[in-house]
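Need tokens for this chain, all 225 residues.
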Amino acid sequence: MPLKSIISRLAAVAGIAYSYIWVFWLQDATLIGSSTVIKDGSTSITSATSPQAVLMGFVGVAIYCVVLNIPAPQQEFRIAPMWRRAAAFAVDSWFSMFTLGSLFGFLDVSLEAVRTGIFRWHYHRSYFVATDSVRVALVFVGMATLVAYFLLPLMRRGQTVGCWIFRLATVNLDGHVVYLPFSIAMRRLFAEFRGLCSPFRTFRKRDEQGRTFYDLESGFTAVCY
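Here are the structure tokens for all 225 residues:
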């Protein structure tokens, strides 16, 4: 693997690790993103982000866009081991949630600023207001964006950030990385979701080549290069 590629991956890993450490140990806000909790008749609505989080969120979007346009190389593949798939998924989960939480949290506090006339990076209130309907819409937009994070690489022969770091690709039965139509990409993504929801079945039901049940059912396999 070229030295430039190694350095790029190490830099990405360092940045993602720093974002995790920063969220849980270095920053003062109680959370990054938004939450609504209704318990025992009481309501708690909280949203927070910060200038640094927003900056890192935009950097995350830029990294994703670059990686999305880096096609997996057409070369000899081998079936990806489960530890490599799990590691890539862990990276993708944190990367996507932190990036989206930072940016959607900024949209939320901006919406609150429009309502109150005062901008704050963090707010908490114990009652609903009319603009909370927009917050609900943002939740669904965020969920759709999260799905798109994993869906677009399948449709563009690209890679997620986690797959790029761990050198993973999704290939068809002939071993080729192909552009998938939306319906087929959704089918593959749903198959992977089923595998995530059935971890014991995923680890136990593999063929002699190491392919999982959802690899076999979907007709596409995760491989490393």
